[in-house]
């Protein structure tokens, strides 16, 4: 029986790239993409020449994922791997919207995968930031440690992961990526968020002297999307990946101050020359005209002072068997900055600032 992969989140950036990576690894496999009605036209354009792909319109927040009843028997007998990527990733998302997609949607997906008769693996994309406001070392087998959360994205992904982790009789792999940036070889990305807000901020400084923001002594965990793809494909098929949780994070991250300096030197050709307190920067970004001017989300400031350290020893150990390693940020940062420079005015890559 050939593998049939079902995926939510298509035609999102990572889902699209993951499809290519899976198709390359498994030439005999077929694919079913659960596509929200709002994304159907784009999905059709991208898969028009793909004979191995079938698009099904649905909605993860609905029972049976909003799929037609006549489709369910066939899916229950054919799906071998289910990849759940669909989520709202916006750091500034309102709670109700985040809960509906991230929590209720995951509950519906959990119910659906429980009806699949030949399921080999359920791969759930969580985030390292289910750690919330924890400090110190966070291990891969830890989840609920009484932590609080900086935003509704974190809290709803935490609630969703709890529900996935509670599943029984479902072979599951939970992945917790760090801050995902563009491809380490090409720099390509679909949105300028995360560390790209630093680049936006530096652009907004024009020719003024550039400050450091806060102390920045904490690790800032950045990983390129191609590492996430390689790791996901390997862990989804490795027996050692079943029923475990993995931090897809940098085992040797730079500090936030170092990352900030490296970006500034690459983008502006000089290092920051003075410092402003993090609380001052946060207060300024609380003013809507200020954050609109810089094109920076206020919520992004908190990740420059994130105090968690993500132990990823389980991921490193299993991925080592596939020759997969997270590249050093310094080796590919110039490519990220070059791609940003080339596409900084692309409106499709900008994040709407509330």
UniProtKB/TrEMBL annotation:
One Pfam family this chain carries?
NAD_binding_4
GO terms under biological process:
long-chain fatty-acyl-CoA metabolic process
Molecular function GO labels: alcohol-forming very long-chain fatty acyl-CoA reductase activity
Official protein name in the record: Thioester reductase domain-containing protein
Recall the taxonomic lineage recorded for the source organism.
Answer: Bacteria, Bacillati, Bacillota, Bacilli, Bacillales
User: Which species is the source of this protein?
Assistant: Kroppenstedtia eburnea
**Annotated Thioester reductase (TE) domain residues:** 8-231
Q: Which PANTHER family match?
A: FATTY ACYL-COA REDUCTASE CG8306-RELATED (PTHR11011:SF45), MALE STERILITY PROTEIN 2-RELATED (PTHR11011)
């Amino acid at each position: 029986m050939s593998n049939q992969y079902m995926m939510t989140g298509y035609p999102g950036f990572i889902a699209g790239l993951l499809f290519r990576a899976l198709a390359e690894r498994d030439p005999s496999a077929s694919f079913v993409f659960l596509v929200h009605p709002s994304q159907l036209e784009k999905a059709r354009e991208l898969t028009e020449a793909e004979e191995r792909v079938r698009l099904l319109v649905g909605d993860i927040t609905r029972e049976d994922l909003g799929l037609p009843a006549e489709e369910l028997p066939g899916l229950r007998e054919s799906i071998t791997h289910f990849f759940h990527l669909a989520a709202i990733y916006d750091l500034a998302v309102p709670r109700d919207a985040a809960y509906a997609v991230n929590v209720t949607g995951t509950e519906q997906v959990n119910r659906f995968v429980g009806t699949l008769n030949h399921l080999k693996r359920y791969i759930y994309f969580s985030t390292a930031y289910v750690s919330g406001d924890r400090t110190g070392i966070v291990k891969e087998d830890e989840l609920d440690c009484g932590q609080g959360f900086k935003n509704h994205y974190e809290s709803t992904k935490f609630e969703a992961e709890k529900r996935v982790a509670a599943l029984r009789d479902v072979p599951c792999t939970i992945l917790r990526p760090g801050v995902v940036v563009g491809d380490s070889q090409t720099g390509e990305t679909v949105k300028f968020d995360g560390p790209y807000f630093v680049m936006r901020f530096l652009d907004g400084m024009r020719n003024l002297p550039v400050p450091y923001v806060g102390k920045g002594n904490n690790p800032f965990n950045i990983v390129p999307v191609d590492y996430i793809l390689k790791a996901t494909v390997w862990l989804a098929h490795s027996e050692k990946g079943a029923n475990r949780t993995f931090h897809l994070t940098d085992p040797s991250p730079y500090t936030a101050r170092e990352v900030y300096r490296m970006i500034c030197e690459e983008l502006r050709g000089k290092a920051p020359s003075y410092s402003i307190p993090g609380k001052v920067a946060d207060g300024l970004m609380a003013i809507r005209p200020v954050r609109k001017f810089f094109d920076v989300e206020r919520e992004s400031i908190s990740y420059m002072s994130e105090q968690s350290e993500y132990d990823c020893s389980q991921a490193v150990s299993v991925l080592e068997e596939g020759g997969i390693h997270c590249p050093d940020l310094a080796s590919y940062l110039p490519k990220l900055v070059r791609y940003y420079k080339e596409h900084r005015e692309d409106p499709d890559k900008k994040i709407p600032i509330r």
